[in-house]
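<instruction>
Derive structure tokens from the sequence
<data>
Labelled lines for chain and fold
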Amino acid sequence: MPASLTEEELKAQILLEEKEPDSKLRAYTGPLGQIVTVLFLVWAVFQIYANTLGVVDAMALRTWHLFFLLGFTFLLFPTFAKEKRSRALPPIWDMALFAGTIFVFAYLLKNYTVIAKRGGYLLKIDLVVAAIMLILIFEGGRRACKNLAILGLVFLLYNFLGMFIPGELGHVGFSVKRVLNHMIWGSQGIFGIGIGVSATYIFLFVLFGSYLKYSGFSQFINDIALTMVGRSAGGPAKVAVLASALLGMINGSAIANVATTGTITIPMMKKTGYKKEFAAAVEAVASTGGQFAPPIMGAVGFVMAEFMGVSYTAVLLAACIPAFLYYLTLLFAVHFEAKRLGLSGLSKENIPNALLVLKKQGHLAIPLVVLISLLSVGFTPLFAAVVSIFATIAASWLRKETRMTWSIIVQATVEGSRSAIAVGMSCAIIGVIIGTVSLTGLGLNFGYIMLRVVGEGQLYLAGFMVMLMSIVLGMGVPGVAAYVIVSTVSVPVLIQAGAIPMAAHLFCLIYACLSNITPPVAMSSYVASGIADSDQTKTSLIAVKLGLTGFILPFFFLDNPILLLGSAADTPLLLTIRAVLTSSIGVIALSSGLQGFLFLKLSIIERFLLVIAGLLFIETRLSTDIIALLMFLAIIVIQYIQIQSQKKEKNHEEN
């Protein structure tokens, strides 16, 4: 396995691994292809310039950002799935939509300040432009994020049809003028926090992830993972866990991560001896967890910090232990499964030399070090992201083998910009949902109904209902979009029931992300299943079992945020350390019980006791830790006696 790649090999590898939804976009050749490439470069340069120097006001930045999003959507996304993708020109209707986009956004940029100065009074032409813009946004959403666009349309219709709904979820109804004013010309609709986050954090960090990919960082991560766990039992599965975690936290898309890393890791796991459903499930679960794993959290952490009005460092610290326990569970699950099946690791000749990997590729980790360092000393995430992008280019030049040439830099910029389109359009549709919630009071009404159902102080019951809502609303939706939708409605309910804001937000985030592996719409599991050629339902169910810690853990920190570093006021350091240690033992016990293996195959009773012990360990009270420890030690003693008995029988047979 090569420790580094030439420019040609890197390009070939990236083309082979490129199985993301972007591969279904129109691809142009000739002069038009060059024009599209230049437009992508202009967009990226504008975003970096505007976010770094702050010379563009927030409304103008969001307007330009949405203009580029819609323009590229109509140029690149096919009108229908089976449309013939011409490499010469887009269809005439898309050219018309592109022209319409130019018109309405030019009008918006010219007249937004004028309308604000006249106190928000709208002329007929203002309403017509707003209506055209809303139609264009939904058409772009239909192409780029169909499921979310349908959900957004339901919310939009609720503004007009809510007057026919009886009870507390109904309202008096709103005129077309009022809705258009709120959605387009107001600050809580399309141009609200959703598109604001897309124009800042999301775009820059997606671009950063693309630069890391083209610098050879993906190969470096894969090689490092191989040197760390490749030779242990079930080594390829552990490599998949580590590599997918590290890449998933950067690119922010569980589905894209499965599609890229899964093409390498899933066949490797199957070849080792894992069943194809298990191999696909491991990749799906590992890729999903990257969305709430520091240090980047797939850009969702920055959205959370923006919502809560706290520093990103606070969010990063709070997510550390839950993410660590999630992946520790998965690592031991694949380890125990390998032991149960009698699988070995990779042979020595297939494992790269660790020192050689660090010598030849270690410099590629410099951008991550730069990013974390800048965030730690108090620089804004936007500044840190931009500096890290340039640090990626500079780091690649430290060795000839990894040097990013101008052509690779252009490819990285274009792919990063392309990858931001679908997420950006999702954020635009989210603006409709948030606008509806704020205009109609739906969030408050729904919260009151939920609190009345669960009762005051019923935090766990409220958490259970929010969990179901988070999973349902997050199905088929990107992680950032799912979190924004869920948190808008659910966080106030959890806080009113007694949770602290950090616990409430992280609770919604984790469950929104886990919808990627939860049937019936388990998108990550389905993509992984397609690569593994496995049964989709079985793959999804195994994924739920492997990711069980992610489903359980939020309930433990909901009422007792010791496991959220820095969130529990005046928590003694020793208590935090003990909680981390006991929770770590707990997830190991939980993995063992679920996989049916510790040192030997476990009986049904032993599995049940280990699962109970695992849950008691995760609970941070001393009494539950002592009970769990006694149960865990009892199982270990029983297994030890069985091993000694088997050894005696074997020696007796040999004699």
Q: What stands out?
A: The two ends are 46 Å apart (CA to CA). The mean pLDDT is 81. The CA atoms of residues 147 and 467 lie 20 Å apart. Residues 572-655 form one domain.
